[in-house]
Design brief:
Elements lengths: L3 H6 L6 H21 L8 H11 L7 E3 L6 E3 L13 H18 L8 H17 L6 E4 L2 E4 L3 H14 L4 H15 L3 H20 L5 H11 L4 H17 L12 H23 L1
Antiparallel strand pairs: 1-2, 3-4
Helix pairs in contact: 2-5, 3-4, 4-5, 6-11, 7-8, 8-9, 8-11, 9-10
Length: 278
């Protein structure tokens, strides 16, 4: 249930800082408390070492040893709140790290944490929907993304990342573009989107040429129409004008155009992969 309607009916104003604090409080109750009571416990030395290292912090204050033995245990005064200290952005990052750990690192120790990831996938969107003011965030498969046009978000984020499962480097580039959109770093949105397509085309053609030099070959290889050739020409021209670090217009990227370029990148990705797989 969203609180927006109640606040609007009674004219209650709440600033974004307050909304973020409430989001963190809800996450503490609905996610972190559940994780804390998980059996077997997720909060173990390997988890804390991994998370603290990525956050760039020391972990030894959380982990104790039994005398001279190598057996380790979590300090009694440890609380998961110590890892994010009430900070909204660190809370988002910690949620992503926990999700990744439960899906990947956790199973190395003979444990299955996928039910935790599934619980987070179900619960975090509900918590986002409770916000008194729209936080403009999406949670998709373990990552937060900026929310744009609602009808396109699922197709842009979830579907395209799925399409890129067999293209790990390209998936990283597209993920960086999505994160840049969240940070409103529009030049990086264009730059990383372009890198994603350029790398994808190189991968498909088995060469290391630039996208400019590969354009005709990818059109013929995938049997794309000349009209799509014109679209790619426009895509390349925009990327060269606004996405390259040496471009004079790299700081003048219009936010709406950056978002459209990101969506176009998703369409090009899906088109190329589907044509190649036929």
């Amino acid at each position: 249930m969203s609180n927006k309607d109640f606040h609007e009916r009674f004219g209650i104003r709440i600033d974004e800082v307050g909304v973020r604090q409430k989001f963190v409080a809800r996450i503490e109750v609905e996610i972190f408390e559940v994780i804390k009571n998980e059996e077997p416990s997720l909060i173990e030395p390997d988890f804390l070492r991994r998370i603290s290292t990525i956050l760039g912090e020391r972990w030894d204050r959380y982990i104790q040893k039994l005398g001279y033995r190598t057996d380790e245990y979590i300090s009694q005064n440890f609380d998961i709140a110590m890892l994010y200290k009430g900070d909204f952005n660190r809370c988002l990052q910690l949620l992503e790290l926990i999700y990744d750990y439960t899906n990947n690192e956790y199973k190395k120790f003979g444990k299955d944490g996928k039910h935790i990831a599934a619980y987070m996938d179900k619960t975090i969107p509900i918590i986002l929907a409770m916000s008194e003011v729209d936080l403009n965030l999406l949670w998709k498969k373990g990552k937060f993304y900026p929310a744009g046009a609602e009808l396109l978000d699922d197709k842009l984020v979830e579907d395209i990342l799925d399409w890129l499962n067999d293209y790990k480097d390209e998936k990283k580039d597209f993920d960086r573009a999505l994160k840049a959109m969240m940070k409103k770093d529009y030049n990086e949105v264009v730059s990383n989107s372009y890198k994603c397509i350029e790398s994808l085309v190189r991968n498909m053609l088995g060469n290391s040429k630039t996208l400019d030099n590969n354009k005709e070959l990818i059109l013929s290889t995938l049997k794309l129409s000349k009209e799509w050739g014109a679209i790619l020409n426009g895509y390349l021209a925009y990327a060269n004008e606004y996405g390259k670090h040496g471009s004079k217009k790299r700081h003048d990227v219009d936010p709406n155009e950056a978002e459209a370029f990101l969506y176009m990148t998703g369409l090009v990705i899906r088109l190329c992969i589907r044509k190649e797989n036929r």
